[in-house]
Amino acid sequence: MEINWIVLGIVAVVLIALILFMIKKNQKEKKKLTDLLNNDFKKTEEDEPDFEDTANEK
């Protein structure tokens, strides 16, 4: 049985292209998720009173 190098080469190139495509797509999704998690927070209301405003009222 003889090895068909042309078919083996084509399969290798397709596998490498698929792996590179998956890595590129994963990096885009990672960036989207990072941006979402970094910017998705609610501002908390001020727990501490503003002493400058209360001092001016007296």
Written overview of the protein:
- The protein is rod-shaped, with a radius of gyration of 29 Å.
- It has helices at 5-39, 51-57.
- The chain is mainly alpha-helical.
- The termini are far apart.
Characteristics of this structure?
mainly alpha, rod-shaped
What's this model, at a glance?
The protein is mostly helical and 58 residues long. Helix content is 72%, strand content 0%.
Measured by DSSP, the beta-strand proportion falls in under 5%
Helix content: over 70%
Number of helices: 2
Radius of gyration, in Å, reads 29 Å
Spans of at least 5 consecutive residues with low confidence: none
Q: Please describe the biggest sheet, giving its number of strands, its sense, and whether it closes into a barrel.
A: none
How many DSSP-defined strands? Answer: 0
Give me the secondary-structure topology.
Blueprint: H1 5-39, H2 51-57
